[in-house]
């Protein structure tokens, strides 16, 4: 079970992601924008951040950039309902996986599981140096 922070200003989208990820056995937390996400991340020992890209205050692009600067950044999954260009930008900033809205449950679970596996492999490689 992983600790997953879902960041989205749309409550309905947060609840859908929560239901999908909790059914898959994960513990979920919410943030309504990037600023709230940074507070939550600092307090909760988050493994994966699933973030929307378009939000008020600190948006998803900025959140990804800030989180990637941490010594041990979380695995990052970006979601957007606005198109492929924004998702490519998120990948360039450091999101490992990207998904379009509306969320497909299988694709979300797969992206989170792959992001967790990647993070574990990176941690193991860093520990072996």
Please specify the SSE layout and strand pairing.
Blueprint: E1 3-7, H1 11-23, E2 27-31, H2 34-44, E3 48-52, H3 60-68, E4 75-80, H4 84-93, E5 97-100, H5 105-127
Parallel strand pairs: 1-2, 1-3, 3-4, 4-5
General description of the model:
With 129 residues, the protein is α/β, with parallel strands linked by helices. It has one domain: Response regulator (Rossmann fold, 3-Layer(aba) Sandwich), CATH 3.40.50.2300. The protein has 5 helices and 5 strands; from the N terminus they run E-H-E-H-E-H-E-H-E-H. It has helices spanning 11-23, 34-44, 60-68, 84-93, 105-127; strands at 3-7, 27-31, 48-52, 75-80, 97-100. Strands 2-1-3-4-5 form a 5-stranded parallel β-sheet, sandwiched between helices. Strand 3, helix 3 (60-68) and strand 4 (75-80) form a beta-alpha-beta unit. Helix 2 (34-44) runs parallel beside helix 3 (60-68). The model has no long low-confidence stretch (mean pLDDT 94).
Characteristics:
129 residues
Instruction: Order the strands across the largest sheet as they lie in space.
Output: 2-1-3-4-5
Question: Could you state the oligomeric state of the chains shown?
Answer: single chain
Proportion of residues in helical segments: 40-55%
Number of structurally distinct domains: 1
Biggest sheet statistics: 5 strands, parallel
Short description:
32% of the residues are buried.
